[in-house]
Amino acid sequence: MSKKEKNRLFDETGRRLLKELRPLRYRILLAAVICLLLIGCAVAGPTLLGNLINRLYGWKDNPDLIRSMIPELLILFGVYALEGLLSYGKWYLLQITVSRYFCAGMRIRISDKLRRLPISYMDKTPAGDIIERMMEDVGNMADSIFDIVSILLSGFLQIIVIAITLLLTDWRLAIPVILLAPLSVLLSTRMATLGQERWDRHYSLSGELTSLAEEAFTNYPATKAFNREDVLQKKYEELSARHQNNGCLANFLSSIVQPVIACVDSLAYIVVSVVGGWLILNRGVAIGTVVTVILFARHLSDPLERVAYGLGFVQQIKSAAKRVFDLLDLPEEQDAEGVAEAPVRGKVEFRHVDFSYDPTRPLIRDLNTVIRPGQKIAIVGPTGAGKTTIVNLLMRFYDIRSGQILIDGRDVSEMSRAEVRRLFAMVLQDTWLFRGTVAENVAYGSPEATRQDIIEACDHAYCDHFIRRLPQGYDTTISEDSTAVSAGQKQLLTIARALLADRPLLILDEATSNVDTRTELLIQKAMDHLMGGRTCFVIAHRLSTIVDADLILVIRDGQIVEQGTHESLLEKKGFYYELFRSQYMI
Fold first, then answer.
1. What homologous superfamily is domain 18-328 in, according to CATH?
2. How far is it, in rounded angstroms, from Cα 395 to Cα 401?
3. What is the DSSP-derived secondary structure letter of residue 561?
4. pLDDT in tens, 504-530
5. What are the DSSP calls for 376-394, one per residue?
6. Do the Cβ atoms of 522 and 460 come closer than 8 Å?
7. Quick one: CA dihedral 571, 575, 580, 584, positive or negative?
8. Each residue's pLDDT tens digit, 549-572
């Protein structure tokens, strides 16, 4: 991408950012009114002070002068007090109200967007990067709104008003100040843009750093088990150092603008002081006039410095905003609006189904099979054969490339994803529990369930006995990392969850791995109860668990190479026979 194209892209990002502020236009309009009042105070204060100084110049000839100036002094005090109150009011309105509303609204939109994105995006995007965009990038955008809005509403307008007032006060003193102002703006604009690429890289590294931290803490036991702490620490230190160096350079390029502006302002003070002194001595200009110009020059430097400071933040916020907008602009899943016809019997049919995650690497090819209602179907095959992919297609986590998947004769592509998923209950090899009570975890898929329904489901899943031994029973707080329940007990809870959901179709990943023999028997009994009367798809890793399946589908390289019962497949002495023999050495 050329430099010209990058600048155009950033301009579009800036316009998009302003568009996002449209819902807050009334608050911003109120802030604009406050800014105008602040400009009035900025003009009135130096003018009143200059007039007072001119009057004080001859105070020896008028002993009552000080007393007569008291009302004007009170007015001057009132002007500066009002300026302080208005400044606080603008800060509160923009920094607190606007930023919080903007920040909360943007995060809600991202959360809603993630809900409508395809699972493929979540599969290929690190969770840490998504969290970084949702939290840190949005937070940086909201924190900078105050500076940007202040620039748009008051910065340039205040510069224009003060410049006009300077010319009306004394054009000879105003010209040096006004001529140096464009130099300040030019330098600040040029230097602020230098940090854009660094800010882009900085936020990208922030996402990588968050992803690495999330991965490290999620897999902490594995890291400890393989003594990889030092390797992980070194990797984190290297990435953190790159992040720090980029951030330091980006901050340097953004913050150096203010010292440059201060240097130009100091030059303006010197010029005004020299020219003013000469005019006082040779042209009879009043000292108060020179003081007024100097004060106005100081007031002119304030908006110039804010503009320079804000321009640095504009580049920073654009880098964060671009990452957020890239997420919000991702294509969403296209979904049908159809619903399943009740009651669902559970007949499932695959007709010439083709699918691949990568178009250049075919996976499922011309898959054809029919599963009758109530059958227990086992899906077996080597790693990478496509077993889990079939489940992903059934649940419409991914859509097929060609062919049809039908439930009770109806194409699932004509039904909404939510409706398809309401037909299935799932028990996976990797259990998942969220932080909440035992009852809330069991009722995860059935929020309308009563406490009695939950207890009955747990009783049928053989987990009621250990739940009652927990400190608060069904109200005990647990999570995925909880040590209050064992791995096998967590699996029994997920079976109870599936029982309570009471769906006509069931998907079981091997659920008895890594548990003791007694718990395995309980899980197997619970699963037998769960499978009763349902069409079941069982992904089998240990073939001994599916010997009683009504139909076994043997998958190899994405194709069904064999199908039949356990006995019939062994008699064929084909690929299934070799798989079974390799496990049990028969």
1. ABC transporter type 1, transmembrane domain (1.20.1560.10)
2. 15
3. E
4. 999 887 766 555 667 777 777 888 788
5. EEEEE-STTSSHHHHHHHH
6. no
7. positive
8. 889 988 888 788 888 888 999 988
